[in-house]
Amino acid sequence: MLANFKSTSSATLPAWRPASAASRSFPRSRPDAARLLLALVLALGVGVRLFHYFDNRSFFIDEIYLNVNTIKLGFWELATRPFEYEQKAPIGYLWATRLCVLLLGKKEMALRLFPLLCGLGTLAVFTSLARHYLQTWGAVVAVGVLALSPPIIYHSVEAKQYSTELLMATLALWLYWKFHARTSLGALLTWGVLGAAVLWFSFSAIFVLASIASVISARWLFTTRWRKLALYLIPFSLWLISFAVQYYFIISKYPQSGWLIDFFAKVYDGFMPLPPTSLAELKWYGQRPYNLLVHPLGLLLTLDGELAAWQSSPWRYLFKLGWLPAGLVLGGLAGLLRRHRPLFFCLLLPLLLTLLASGMRAYPFYGRFTLFLAPALLLFLGEGVDGLRKLLARRRELFGAVLALLALPLLVNTGRQLADRDLFMNYEDNRGPLLYINQHYQPGDVVYVFWNMTHAYQYYKAAYPLRYTARQGRNLKNEATGPADFLRRMQPELAALRGNKRVWFVFDYLNRNTIGEYVQQPAWYHTQYFYATTEVQRQLGQLGRRVEEYHSKPYNHYPHTAVLYELNPEQHRAQGQVKAHWLMGYPN
Fold first, then answer.
1. With CB atoms 3.0 to 4.6 Å apart as the test, which of 1, 58, 60, 128 could cross-link to 431 if both were Cys?
2. Bigger pLDDT: 3 or 135?
3. 471: three-class secondary structure by DSSP
4. What CA–CA distance (Å, rounded) separates 395 from 399?
């Protein structure tokens, strides 16, 4: 395909122009249905993000791991010190969130503010991009999916860097639009500086900027336009220098995480088999790109609840409706290849580079790590919609039905998450047990936090005015040789609880791994016959009487739990059932 660059003169490769006045996507004279619909989906996108932001749910475990560091390290320490729990994030994101902490405090909403602003900024920047490159309905659909995709909404209100990565990928494409046809020294320097800045806020932006640099360089290289090539090397060199400086001084200092590679390989199958050696590995090449329709685009209908029976049915692929956006994306790929080849390669190459990095086990091709690909995928989708609109020019009702069917998963999935906030991605109530204890704590109470909840305690102790200082359990499972040895090693911690009138035990029933551990190791700890928290409760029950419980989500195995024991039961002769609180979450 690169030969096409050589055989096509620069005169026949003009910068893409919006549609002619006769087919202008968004007429200035009067608002039409498409413009109103675009405004509506943008308003809905903003509204849904604000709803989930102000809902202020508890931190998810990954949010806690990162922000335990953000709330206590200064700007210089964030750039130079290794993080607890082996966390990594772009320094620009870390500094921005640290500024929010200094201005607004350490609670969840302060730490989610910058991702929220990035999510809203992505809507604005991508809308401009889509209106330039797509026609009316293609732009409406592309922006609508961005606005209402459940995964994209989630990352916009997650206290992690992925919303920022999405914004930076979108900005990189926006900068391409604004500067790729300009050859003045000032414009090229501006492009270079802005692109260099993008890299400090996003690890994944290097895939997008490297693709843009490769496509433009190939164009002038294969048309032997050496002066043009030399001019464009100005911004590209600035990007390379920026990445090299950041890599040398910051990224290379991160510890090597063999356990993390093992985790993504075994749990999420996140690395492309290179080369494939079995039929199962060959299926990866179809399944993983298809899964982009789930995350980040959110275009497959979720089959759970009353529809769960369809999940195992061979008809599930029909009812999930993934065949429709998949067909439109493929049509958009073909259409954009014909209509605007440089843009086609600028959008496709990041996907190919990400797959290559995945094959080298350098970058997982999974979930949140592919969020930055959303702008390219949405432009392909919008191009496919525009092509379908031309094909069905005389069958508007059918075209409208296709759009409605395309929107159905977005509206159903997002609507269900609004109606039942526990369905929102990565719902966890790490906060609930700790604040419940804070409300019911009595002088003299002892709070014992099992090792698998110490990260939550460390964050919420710093962020909230907890009235108690807990005893934090040690992770002994990697020192023990088996269940009996584990319980023997725990005896000093349990013995220290004796002599107290009331003891609160806080634990996560499901979490059996911590950061830095290889999957399912040690094997004896991960069998279905041994649950350490159950054994601890049994031993505490021998010391006293269970009188009160807090469970965060009873229908999901109530993982985050606080149990109150009275260790001097002879002083409490009144017998009764344990008081249990089955709460969906604890109020702020």
1. 58
2. 135
3. strand
4. 6
